[in-house]
Amino acid sequence: MKRVLLCALLIGWSTMASAVVYKWVDAQGKVQYGDNPPDGVHAEVVELLGTHAARSTSNSVVTSNGDRPAATPPSDTKKAVEKDVAQARDKQCADAQDRYKKLIEGRRLYKTGDNGERQYLTSDEIDSERLNAKHDVDEICNSAT
Question: Same domain, yes or no, for 107 and 133?
Answer without folding.
Answer: yes
